[in-house]
UniProtKB/TrEMBL annotation:
The species this protein was found in: Austrofundulus limnaeus
Catalytic EC class: transferase
UniProt keyword terms in alphabetical order: Glycoprotein, Glycosyltransferase, Golgi apparatus, Membrane, Signal-anchor, Transferase, Transmembrane, Transmembrane helix
Catalyzed reactions: a beta-D-Gal-(1->4)-beta-D-Glc-(1<->1)-Cer(d18:1(4E)) + UDP-N-acetyl-alpha-D-glucosamine = a beta-D-GlcNAc-(1->3)-beta-D-Gal-(1->4)-beta-D-Glc-(1<->1)-Cer(d18:1(4E)) + UDP + H(+); a neolactoside nLc4Cer(d18:1(4E)) + UDP-N-acetyl-alpha-D-glucosamine = a neolactoside IV(3)-beta-GlcNAc-nLc4Cer(d18:1(4E)) + UDP + H(+)
Family named by the database record: Belongs to the glycosyltransferase 31 family.
Presence of the UniProt keyword Chaperone in the record: no
GO molecular function: lactosylceramide 1,3-N-acetyl-beta-D-glucosaminyltransferase activity
InterPro entries tied to this protein: Glyco_trans_31 (IPR002659)
Ranges in coiled-coil conformation: none
Listed name of the protein: Hexosyltransferase
Any one GO CC term of the record: Golgi membrane
Cross-referenced Gene3D superfamilies: 3.90.550.50
């Protein structure tokens, strides 16, 4: 039997060259591969196979010794640092068109000091308290949560503009911390502490970004349905859920979280910070968690998930709460939508279309409903990923 050793050596060289090429590609693309594939596989395995987040109690709960130290920064219960109010309205939930004990929704919008146009658009559209009372028959209280402008050279000018704005609308809540991305958790804590102290009677609390759109008629209808249900809207935390999300380890990302801050492969389940709703009892539990939970993690929606997990709470998915994406523009989508992310310049036009669709939606009839279902299937059930509404929303 004759063996061609030259051909064998040639095959071995090709194999070595191919292996080397593959290794070089892996070395060059490893960061993206690790971010998009490896970290997600590891986090999902931790979320669905291990599913133990007991480190929240072992590692992130502030001990009583640390809470009682007098040489540390001023804290509320040791977990969250307390910042003084610059602008506040303690009587916001007292009086008004409805009874004091009948505030359906306390609506907190996370805003930056310079975003006056966004706040004005919200006041004139989906955040309008007068519309909620006169057209929907419910008491909604709107507040914009913010810190101080980070640029020292322009801070005084921006602050003067904020005071003038607040004198006109009386709906700004501001504490003395820098309004930056890394202080979003501080802004989140401020909302739950304000609700606990000044508006404990509110049935629901919603926290939202100032670049989202909220279909207020649909949201109110949904909340009223929950109040009529057997559970009475207890233990409610609803939004667009992220399950088994891994921490971002790429240093060039604004969501970068180092291992020494969060060494575990997966976050607890949490809802997208663009907009979610909690019931009054859940708001109280989150408030209690912020008193003892280490608030050093600066990604606010993840910190919300950590607080909820520590208190034994789990989020509920609602298919018409948007994630980071923008909802498609179509009247058949407006029928069901509650939130949509990524709106700034088009809030007024979207509000007009949504209100018009709400007014005419009940007269569609059977064929109209079939048509809208088909439209939603074509829009939402596409093969490629879109972070708005899932395909299940087409049939809900």
């Amino acid at each position: 039997m004759f063996i061609n050793f030259r051909r064998i050596r040639k095959c071995q060289c090709v194999q070595l060259l191919t292996t080397g090429l593959v290794l070089c590609v892996l070395m060059v693309c490893w960061e993206d591969l690790d971010h998009h594939v490896v970290s997600h596989v590891r986090s999902c395995a931790y979320r669905y196979l291990v599913n133990r987040y007991d480190f929240l109690n072992r590692s992130l709960i502030i001990s009583s010794n640390r809470r009682n130290r007098k040489d540390g920064p001023i804290t509320v219960g040791g977990g969250a640092r307390s910042y003084p109010y610059i602008i506040n309205h303690p009587g916001k939930c007292i009086g008004g068109p409805g009874d004091q004990d009948d505030v359906l929704l306390l609506l907190f919008v996370k805003s930056s000091p310079e975003n006056f146009e966004r706040r004005q658009a919200i006041r004139n559209t989906w955040g309008n308290e007068s519309f909620a009372w006169s057209e929907l028959g419910v008491d909604v209280r709107l507040l914009f949560a913010m810190g101080v402008y980070p640029d020292v050279s322009q801070r005084s000018q921006v602050q003067d503009a904020l005071r003038q704005e607040d004198q006109a609308y009386r709906d700004l809540i501001q504490q003395n911390f820098l309004d930056t991305f890394h202080n979003l958790t501080v802004k989140l804590i401020m909302q739950f502490h304000w609700k606990q102290k000044y508006c404990p009677q509110a049935r629901f609390l919603m926290t939202a970004d100032d670049d989202i759109f909220v279909h207020m008629p649909n949201l109110v209808k949904y909340l009223q349905y929950l109040l009529r249900s057997q559970s009475g809207a207890n233990d409610l935390w609803v939004g667009h859920i992220h399950k088994g999300a891994p921490p971002v380890r790429r240093k060039n990302s604004k969501y970068y979280v180092p291992y020494d801050l969060y060494p575990w492969p997966s976050y607890p389940d949490y809802t997208s910070g663009a907009g979610y709703v909690v019931s009054g009892d859940v708001a109280s539990k989150i408030y209690q968690a912020t008193l003892v939970l280490n608030s050093s993690l600066y990604i606010d929606d993840v910190f919300m998930g950590m607080c909820a997990k520590a208190m034994g709470l789990s989020p509920q998915e609602h298919v018409y709460f948007s994630g980071e994406g923008k909802a498609p523009y179509h009247s058949c989508i407006y029928d069901r939508m509650i939130t949509s992310h990524g709106h700034a310049a088009d809030v007024h036009s979207l509000w007009r279309e949504a209100i018009h669709s709400t007014a005419s939606g009940n007269s569609r009839g059977f064929l109209g409903n079939v048509y809208c279902t088909a439209v939603r299937v074509m829009i939402l059930c596409r093969p490629y990923f879109q972070n708005t509404y899932s395909c299940a929303a087409a049939f809900t």
